[in-house]
Amino acid sequence: VADLEGRPRAEVEELLRSAVATEDYLEAARLRDYLERVAVDSEAAILYANNEFYEAFQECDPKRMNALWLKEARSCCVHPGLLPVHGSEAIADSWRNILSPRRGMKIECLRPSVTVTGTVGRVVCYERVEDRITLVAINLFESTGSGW
């Protein structure tokens, strides 16, 4: 397994196809098991990051929220009913404006469903806000050197 760590998923999938094509079923099983373990590990890490997002939201903690966002110009955040916010600095400002005036907020993530494709993870869930409003949310995560 050590020889597979850090390799892109697509590369390992190609090795798996090659092992099956050459009828090296022991190697194919090893590669299949590795891909399954990585997928489970990724899903758990994404759910953890998603949970961190909602905890920062509940605590109205803009610093904690900012720590979760990718520090890139290509980052994008869409708050319900508003135009998309682009760039990590603008996103941090938008969360500061939403969270700073409050001491806490009741928001729950319900029925999260995770999909992982390469270095991108997606969580689709329901958000229940203040026990009154339920929204559908899509949260995207990118795997980086520091996690999801």
TrEMBL record:
Residues 47-148 form the SnoaL-like domain. Pfam families: SnoaL_3, UVR. Residues 11-37 form the UVR domain. InterPro entries: NTF2-like_dom_sf (IPR032710), SnoaL-like (IPR037401), UVR_dom (IPR001943). This is UVR domain-containing protein. It comes from Spumella elongata.
